[in-house]
Task: structure prediction
Amino acid sequence: MKIKFIGATREVTGSKHLIITDSGKKILLDCGMFQGKGMETDAANRDLGFEPSEIDYVLVSHAHIDHTGLIPYIYKNGFNGKVICTDATKDLCSIMLPDSGFIQELDIKWYNKKLFKQGLPRVNPIYTHMDAEQCMKIFVAVPYDKDYKVDEGITVRFTNSGHMLGSAVVNITLEENGKVTKIAYTGDVGRPHNRIVKPPVPFPQADILITEATYGDRIHEQDRETELDLYNVINNTCVQRGGKLIIPSFSVGRTQEIVYMLNNFYNEGILPKIDIYVDSPLSVDATEIFKMHKECYNEGIIETMKEDPHPFHFDTLHYVRSAEESKELNTTKKPCIIISASGMAEAGRVKHHIANSIEDSRNTIMLVGYCAPETLGARIQEKGLHEISIFGLVHPLNADIEKIESLSGHGDYIEMGDFISCQDPEKLRNIFLVHGDYEAQKFYREYLMSKGYSNIQIPKRGDEFYY
Result:
């Protein structure tokens, strides 16, 4: 057996890890898109590192685009196997992948105008909205905690990783030549106290563990501190200064968690009487899917729903679909909260909201999760920054920049370490750290070694390991 690491190696995007069995079966763990560098990532996304038609199965940990975004691309280029995931992940992919395809079409339209001016030939999008819709027919949904026979001698079981709706540890059992090998791929590891989804659960003992390290060198605040921070930012921005609060947020998971917190503030009678806008068609659709999968809810939100059966709706909350209404939000001067995608502020409607709000000292832009170094979300956090370029125009940076990192769906290094404590270090042949910046990975490796783990590798892109 061979494991080849293709994406999310010493970085936090483009998750793709290839298993090749002794019998020649090729199993891809996630098929994520590289994000965060604009059109610079186009070449990386087109250069897969494998032939799509040779892949037999894709096993998906969760629906985020940096883990699923190239499934339509490999389908378009010859992959005709099965994509296997949980029920909620399949439902989320049915909206997220077409949305991603639509974004590819818009991005390439802008890019081709630039190429035309330079006298260069035009290029096609990586895939289209239609490609993404068509690829959904090869998805197979599997319930949590059930063994599913992928192929002869290959079984998968999904166990809850607590990162987002439908997220899972992919537990694979390979039986070849009289030998059994167990591989656990955690995908992204959630926090033990997510406000909506159930917490992570222990997963079966593995021989080989592939796990993330996004926050491998950081510790999050406690939940109540996070809620107090959010309330204070709202009060300072919208009440005391009369400004707008712009929150770049991932459409799936983070947005619903923020809305749920605001809903609780509303129920407690402490939410200021201002309009709140969720400005993202994908967020609107994702919220509907969240309502469909109450089996993923934790005890806290179930208890809340006994008194408030609609925890993603309240009187001052507005879901925005149309581009026209979104544009109107840029011209309004009244205090309000705008929650909009993308979470790293690198694309989508939120980038326009930031461009239209960043020069006004009454306003606040609040980051609520990890931002890759090259993204707008990371750049506006640089200390001593006085101006910034957005859409090619330089803007004075007068708005407040706030950050509440503990709203992230990723566990910190202690929480991740606690999660994998269900694994006996003596029985693990290897641990591979992926999905993390190299410095964070090195810190997390040292932390795990202090806990008794050994044989911990931090693979580079293209590294191969044989068993």
The longest helix spans residues 87-117. The chain has a mean pLDDT of 94.
